[in-house]
Amino acid sequence: MAAVVLTLYGSPECHLCDEMKAVVRPLAAEFGCALDEIDISAHPALEAQFRQEIPVLFVNGRKAFKYRLSARELRRRLDAERRRGEPSPPWWRRLLTR
Question: How far apart are CA 62 and CA 66, in angstroms?
Fold first, then answer.
């Protein structure tokens, strides 16, 4: 199963970004996620795109959260991503579990 990739867009002077990092970092470690923290202030195009939304967290390339999130919300999303990555059982096994 491929690891879940988290991408957190933020900026150093953002208190909401610090709050989101405090939630994301421990759960990323617990779930074995790759975590990329992107400072938008170093990239003019990203700053233009995300300035009004930071912090923004993408999960496997899809926007998942902005501004705030709880550990419970992120845990639920990471559990769903983990299940999504698991292969489904063969058709005949599904018949046996009914």
Answer: 12
> How much is the pTM?
0.82
- Contact between residue 6 and residue 56 where contact means Cβ atoms under 8 Å apart: no
- Beta bridge pairs of residue 9: 38, 56
pLDDT score at 90: 54
Task: Return the CATH number of 5-96, one of 3.40.50.80, 3.10.450.50, 3.30.420.10, 3.40.30.10.
Answer: 3.40.30.10
Neighbouring residues of 41: CB distance < 8 A, sequence distance ≥ 6: 11, 12, 47
Q: Is the pLDDT of residue 87 over 90?
A: no
- Confirm if 5 and 42 have CB atoms less than 8 A apart: no
Q: Tell me: pLDDT of 86 over 60.
A: no
Checking phi first, is residue 15 left (phi over 0); if not, alpha (psi -120 to 50) or beta? alpha
